[in-house]
Specification:
- It is a single chain.
- Helices cover about 10% and strands about 45% of the residues.
- By secondary structure, it is mainly β.
- A hairpin with a 2-residue loop joins β6 and β7.
- The protein folds into 2 domains: about 600 residues, Beta Barrel (Maltoporin, Chain A), CATH 2.40.170; about 70 residues, no CATH class.
Length: about 700
């Protein structure tokens, strides 16, 4: 392992001197660092990654109409996703003590605001008059900006599910084209409405009786700051409550090198304009505020995908035409959102979900206290499965949750947390503490206790697993800064699962730790190194024993990322990842070049990977801009891509990307209906964006 590791590191630094790429977005690195933790778990209780570009849309909106730092509240500042709770608290205290910012450059005087953070914020924020402007309903309609977006993607090689002659019962019903059409109108933080239509690869675009509609159709109308009505949501919207113990549908990160960003904070109601088909509500919601009291109420009626099962109870009961007993229907929810085959079509819109909830929040000068409740009712009882680890999974027609959450600041200390209970009385608790030990040192502690039987439908809290329940743990993080060029961050997390989990057949525990070092020699160059250690439980079969036993797999991951400008127009970025443990080794080397030439932006990248068959390494931003996609590379091969962006005019831009993965010597790529014969997989992505 040592020689291969030295070779990869040497190759990485040699390429730094030769080429050039664009500055990284912080969210890309955080996605990659948390990827293996969530995506390698495929149990029923672990939902798949959300198809949600909410964060990208939020920042894109602020790039057009900047956020006013003198009027933004804590939720809006957190919504940028660029600051931790201590930095948000420091800005609010600075405003309270010294008044509104006179200039954006005054941010340098705010404690905890170093030049790298200020550079990240500059494209999205401004320092206005400090007075909240008054807009009429006519302004809401006329002063905003319209945007029309069309996305197209396709894999050029034909997968097994598209081949002619395949049995109609198991082949895909539609074409390999992936299409998204999205219209959205935005007027800053005051108004948003839009329409989304999407067809995944393998699905049919046309619906019976409505040939102009996609497989998925979404719409929303969202208004804010209309007198006492702080927010009004109609159509599709998300609900985010507390620290996610009972409800969190918005975009969020887990453990990463941003060790201080552990707190969830958002407006309760948010518009939903993404293409995901599971993590949102459809109905109406309203937030009303008077002085320091705010009340939110929402209702939703949705048809979710699910598999219906027939069960027999009360043997001997007489039913006309049935000698076996009384028959009831049960359902198992499906969050994938695919409708490609006849069997997947049978799952469509089978489960009717009714949701109602309320939040009452009292706001203090430097914090808040809130009481929350949410209930879901289903037309058919939820079925939890027969496996022993699913003993405490959701079942029945009703899911009830209630909680109280708080957030308070005092000087350089910030407390936050949430205490929750489900309909059966099982508790869950999350409490966090952040403190600025000085101008260069910050610390965070976070404790969580989730009863083994605690369950919530859309819970998503900070922890080893975002799914809430069956986890206890303590997280500690430290961040140190030397000037504006050096940053050292580290965390350690010790966790336990008091009950069984998917692929873990006994109560278990583990450890996760990370060390991160960043150097910023100038405004456009950066180098960071990350080391992560994970000890996670998993079932292992040890010969000659016939049964499986639980053992802790130890893994080490080392990654390096560098950004280097060649000149004012060309930038290079390189990444290296190496993972080893349990006798398996994985390596990846990636580099990308981007050039800016007038209205053109040209880019190209190449990655080489060599991993164990059961392991995988991840790269972010390998798809459409802002789609939060993560590409998994497993086996041995290489991947190349080239992309072109042309800005035709101020409101019209075109984007094209070609990419190809090659697995030398492989007879096929993928499995099942996604299997492609040969050693190559080629994809084309196109996007047209028009604003006016």
């Amino acid at each position: 392992m040592g020689k291969r590791m030295m070779f990869v590191v040497a190759l990485f630094f040699c390429t730094v001197k030769a080429l050039a790429q664009e500055e990284e977005l912080p969210m890309e690195m955080r996605q990659e660092q948390g990827a293996g933790r969530e995506m390698e778990r495929t149990g029923e209780e672990q939902m798949p990654a959300q198809e949600n570009d909410e964060q990208y849309q939020e920042l894109a909106g602020y790039a057009r109409r900047k956020l006013n730092l003198n009027t933004a509240d804590a939720a809006a500042l957190h919504g940028l996703g660029l600051m931790d709770a201590l930095q948000v608290n420091a800005l609010l205290q600075y405003r309270e003590t010294l008044g509104a910012l006179v200039s954006i450059y005054e941010l340098q005087a705010v404690p905890g605001f170093e030049l790298p953070l200020i550079r990240l914020l500059l494209p999205y924020v401004q320092a206005g008059s400090g007075l909240e402007p008054y807009y009429t309903l006519k302004d809401y309609v006329r002063r905003g900006k319209h945007q029309l977006e069309l996305r197209y993607g396709r894999t050029l090689e034909a997968a097994e599910g598209y081949r002619r002659g395949k049995d109609e019962a198991v082949r895909y019903l539609g074409s390999a084209d992936k299409i998204l059409l999205r219209y959205r109108y935005r007027f800053g933080k005051y108004a948003s409405w839009g329409l989304v239509m999407e067809k995944d690869a393998g699905e049919t675009w046309m619906r019976k009786g409505a040939p102009w509609l996609g497989d998925h159709l979404g719409f929303h109308l969202f208004l804010q700051r209309m007198g006492k009505v702080k927010a009004l949501a109609l159509g599709d919207f998300t609900v985010n409550i507390g620290q996610g113990l009972i409800q969190w549908q918005g975009f969020s990160f887990g453990k990463s090198a941003a060790v201080m960003q552990v707190k969830r904070e958002s407006e309760v109601l948010r518009p939903y304009a993404a293409a995901g088909e599971f993590y949102f509500y459809r109905g109406a919601g309203v937030t009303v505020e008077k002085r320091n009291i705010g009340v939110t109420g929402f209702m939703s009626i949705r048809r979710l995908d699910g598999r219906l099962h027939l069960r027999e109870d009360t043997p001997g009961a007489e039913i006309p035409g049935d000698m076996g007993g009384e028959v009831y229907e049960e359902g198992t929810l499906s969050s994938a959102g695919y409708h490609r085959t006849p069997s997947e079509m049978t799952l469509r819109a089978n489960m009717l979900q009714y949701t109602a909830g309320a939040v009452a929040k009292w706001k203090a000068r430097r914090g808040h206290l809130a009481f929350n409740a949410i209930a879901q009712q289903y037309a058919h009882p939820l079925k939890k499965g027969e496996e022993l680890y699913r003993l405490y999974a959701l079942e029945g027609k009703r899911v009830l949750n209630a909680s109280a959450d708080h957030s308070f600041s005092w000087r350089n200390v910030h407390w936050f947390g949430e205490t929750a209970v489900d309909g059966s009385g099982h508790p869950a608790l999350l409490q966090g503490f952040l403190a600025a030990l000085g101008t260069r040192a910050d610390v965070v502690l976070l404790y969580r206790y989730e009863h083994k039987a605690y369950r919530s439908m859309y819970g998503n809290s900070f922890g080893e697993s975002s799914a809430v329940g069956n986890e206890n743990g303590m997280y500690a993080g430290l961040q140190l800064k030397w000037g504006s060029k050096w940053l050292l961050a580290a965390y350690a997390d010790v966790f336990q699962a008091p009950w069984l989990k998917y692929r873990v057949s006994a109560p278990s525990g583990g450890t996760d730790a990370l060390l991160f070092l960043q150097w910023l020699p100038d405004k456009k160059s950066s180098l960071n190194i990350t080391y992560r250690y994970a000890s996670s439980p998993v079932d292992v079969k040890v010969p000659p024993l016939k049964q499986r036993i639980v053992m802790n797999e130890q893994k080490h991951l080392v990654s390096m990322r560098a950004t280097l400008p060649v000149n004012d127009r060309i930038t290079w970025q390189g990444r290296m990842q190496a993972a080893f443990g349990n006798g398996a080794e994985s390596f990846m080397l990636y580099q990308q070049v981007q050039a800016r030439l007038g209205k053109w932006r040209l880019g190209g990248g190449y990655s080489w990977f060599d991993t164990a068959e059961t392991e995988g390494l991840y790269l972010a931003s390998m798809g459409f801009p802002g789609d939060q996609s993560l590409a998994r590379f497993s086996g041995r091969g290489y991947n190349g891509h080239a992309q072109v962006q042309y800005r035709v005019s101020e409101g019209l831009s075109l984007w094209c990307r070609w990419q190809q993965a090659v697995y030398p010597g492989s007879g096929s790529i993928g499995s099942g209906l996604e299997e492609i014969e040969g050693e190559r997989k080629t994809g084309v992505l196109l996007q047209v964006q028009f604003s006016w």
